Amino acid sequence: xxxxxxxxxxxxxxKTPYFYETIGRCLELDCPDFEVLIGVDGKTxxxxxxxxxxxxxxxxxxxxxxxxxxxxxxxATGAYVAFLDDDSYPASDWLKKAVxxxxxxxxxxxxxxxxxxxxxxxxxxxxxxxxxxxxxxxxYSYRFTKERARYVDDYPAYNMVVSKEALKRVGGFATxxxxxxxxxxxxxxxxxxxxxxxxxxxxxYHHRRRFxxxxxRQVGNVGLHRGYFVRAYPQTSLRPSYFAPAVATAAAAxxxxxxxxxxxxxxxxxFLLALFYVIVFFVGTTGNSFWISLFFPLALLINYLSYGVxxxxxxxxxxKLER
Length: 323
What we know:
The chain is of the alpha/beta class and 323 residues long. Helix content is 50%, strand content 14%. The relative contact order is 0.13.
């Protein structure tokens, strides 16, 4: 099999050690023919001279990842386009395995998990435990840990390889969403007749946001967009699993209000909270250290509340999200 050229697109938000790790790992890929396209705003400099790297500048002081990726798609010279975030880095065989699966299955779009890097901090690993657990991500935990191969219809762009032909046919991202832009792209691909195939061997490592503050801003933004997308993109967002944290948040608020006026409801709420902690603690011991498991129940509860409140805000009180 002749290996096709692949264009890796990395939209840069701001320069961090993670970004330089991303580019460094890309340059070490076991792949015969690739280029790295870095989307930057304004006069941002990144200091690379490698012939495989191209810096693509926008005409704005700040643009979102979708806009930078669209510039990259237009400039890409590869037969396939691979997307990474600026805080994710690929396994050395990432592209080789992606192309093999594409050819074997005769596909145009493949995706894979974004695993928690082993050298992430304790607070980042708490976030990783939430994301990789079915209690935290529900039926979408495969996005953050290795699970069985399957076809999907909605996937984050931190680990996605797409034929350039398919991207040109659907017009790329063509959105200013900052969070959820990948949902818009996936829906366009599905509607155009393409299949999106998840395989656990197409691996990147995605640094987690630190818990609590960085992560809660992130999950709150996800909840806001998902609530809005229930109305904007019901084909892939009108699902019970996306509503569950919001329903739980509303139930918790009702129990809290009831506890202030009723001893019976207070005792019931206390019992349910204790039961939740015990169950989640034991679930969290699978694949996590004791200390991660100890914090896991509280972290998961806060996660539900942040997502749930913002989901309700996006569903009922947000008329427009594009910047």
